[in-house]
Amino acid sequence: MYVVLGGGIGGLSVVHYLQKSSFKNVKLIEASSRVGGWIKTTKTPEGFVFEQGPRTVRPKGVAGENTLALIEDLGLVNKVMPIQYNHPAAQNRLIYVNKALHTLPFNNIRSLLVTQTPFTKPLICALFQDLKTPKKLVKDESIYDFVERRLGKEIAEYAVNPLICGVCAGDAKEISVKFLLKSLFEAEQTYGSIVKGMLMSIFKRKPSSIFQTKCELFKRAEKERWSVWSLDGGLELLPETLRISIKNQQADVLLSCPCTELVFQNGKAVVKVSEKIFECDHVISSLPAKQLALLLTKQHPELGKELSSIPTVSVVVVNLQFKGRLLKENAFGLLVPSSEKLPILGIVFDTCCFPKGDNTVLTVMMGGRWFDQFFGNDPSPDKLLSTAVQYVHSILHISGDPQAHEVSLLRNCIPQYVLGHYERIERIKAYVNEHNLPLSLVGASYDGVGINDVILSARTAVKNLIKIFNDGEVI
Length: 475
Ligand SMILES: Cc1cc2nc3c(=O)[nH]c(=O)nc-3n(C[C@H](O)[C@H](O)[C@H](O)COP(=O)(O)OP(=O)(O)OC[C@H]3O[C@@H](n4cnc5c(N)ncnc54)[C@H](O)[C@@H]3O)c2cc1C
Ligand SMILES: C=CC1=C(C)c2cc3[nH]c(cc4nc(cc5[nH]c(cc1n2)c(C)c5CCC(=O)O)C(CCC(=O)O)=C4C)c(C)c3C=C
Hints:
Elements: E1 2-5, H1 9-20, E2 26-29, E3 41-43, E4 49-51, H2 61-73, E5 80-84, H3 88-91, E6 94-97, E7 100-103, H4 110-113, H5 123-132, H6 143-151, H7 153-168, H8 177-180, H9 182-191, H10 194-203, H11 216-223, E8 226-231, H12 237-248, E9 252-254, E10 259-265, E11 268-273, E12 276-280, E13 282-285, H13 289-296, H14 301-308, E14 312-323, E15 333-335, E16 344-349, H15 350-353, E17 359-368, H16 371-375, H17 381-396, E18 404-415, H18 421-434, E19 439-441, H19 451-469
Parallel strand pairs: 1-2, 1-13, 2-9, 6-15, 13-19
Antiparallel strand pairs: 3-4, 5-8, 6-7, 10-11, 11-12, 14-17, 14-18, 15-16, 16-17
Helix pairs in contact: 1-12, 1-19, 2-19, 6-7, 9-10, 13-14
Bound molecules: flavin-adenine dinucleotide (FAD) and ligand L6N33NVT.
């Protein structure tokens, strides 16, 4: 028997891939009363979709193709809502600097040649700086330092700093370039410059599809030039459909059952869940690393210490619906560089991507790496709501109260891949191997925070299990 810990998208995908490769005796253990983890959608009584966690998925690369293949497997193709590259939401990235909104100049070649505020030089100057800057051999560096050194302070401050807020709600001065922008890091280490590395990559063979034949939906995404996609009714449809699918194939799904201890003995794993104890051949954990650490630290303190050292940050998500079409800018949303020292990280313009009649739906995201500084220990929902509404008024000039709102405090929701993350993950994997622990690690804490990364990590873990047990069908 296999036990999968955690019913977020990682754990659900593991069960799906186990079943696909003919492992049928699977138990999924989830602490809360629902599946989906951070993927959570609510609907207002008037039918407005409020995403409390992720809202879009990228169709790019091997990981993007893998997720689209899963969507096909689950029969969700008709629910996919793509946003194409030429849509304003894909073209326009706004940042809020010096009390004004600015469009980031990365959407066409012409924009490289002109000076656009808040930048004081055309972007092309940054590319020349990169070509002139000598290569520096480093093991790792913060994304901010790397970009400042090679492309200049303005790109680090106005492009990379907000980008990191919009992917991990973190501080670019702490996040590892080797992990989050691996291709740019390797471009310098191998070719001496980002520009040269990018040019070389045009001639390099792209990684081929992991499928024998390309998935149809991926082919459509390429042909129609999708930038991102979502699901009609909200992204929670994905974990919910997975839950139904795995249950139909006889997986034992235990909800409201937090695992409290994990012990390894005689090549087996003993999983404690409330009063019950399950012995199994292998455990696949999709829990956040800190949660897993709590379960095994008594027996494996060294592993527990490494796992609990992966930092996380908390994000406040405030969904708002206003009557009327109130947005002047047509864009995915706006991001706020941390140098602005505001409690908000950014605002997503939901109804710009997916219009909803004569209404405006926005999502304000706040806190992240700066949560404690701005909100302290236990902020009240009223304070969080009024802060969000205040910035919607001052930045977007939308006055009046929202007709509907939802405030969610997502504690420790996003892991931070800080300097040294790569080496820490290597140490964790080595420990598991050297001690022959029947344990696989899946989920956002390790090899990528995006939904695509998490689903691919699930598939990879199952593929590796097939190798270990020399059993099951190849997926
Ligand atoms: C605000 C926000 C916006 C995001 N936006 C995007 C986006 O636009 N696009 C994108 O691709 N990604 C986005 N992400 C990232 C993505 O949503 C997550 O990385 C992904 O959902 C993580 O999935 P997971 O299965 O690894 O973990 P989780 O979702 O954390 O699932 C882990 C599960 O384990 C359970 N659990 C914990 N402890 C125990 C225990 N002791 N016993 C049993 N169960 C336990 C939890 O209840 C949870 O259900 C966003 C994330 C956040 C927070
Ligand atoms: C423009 C506004 C955005 C805000 C505000 C924002 C907040 C936010 N995002 C995450 C986590 C992720 N976002 C991801 C993708 C993504 N985010 C935005 C914009 C905002 N995010 C866009 C346009 C996209 C699409 C991808 C892109 O074009 O860059 C992802 C997935 C990344 C991947 O590798 O696929 C994650 C993860 C958090 C935690 C957050 C909170 C402030």
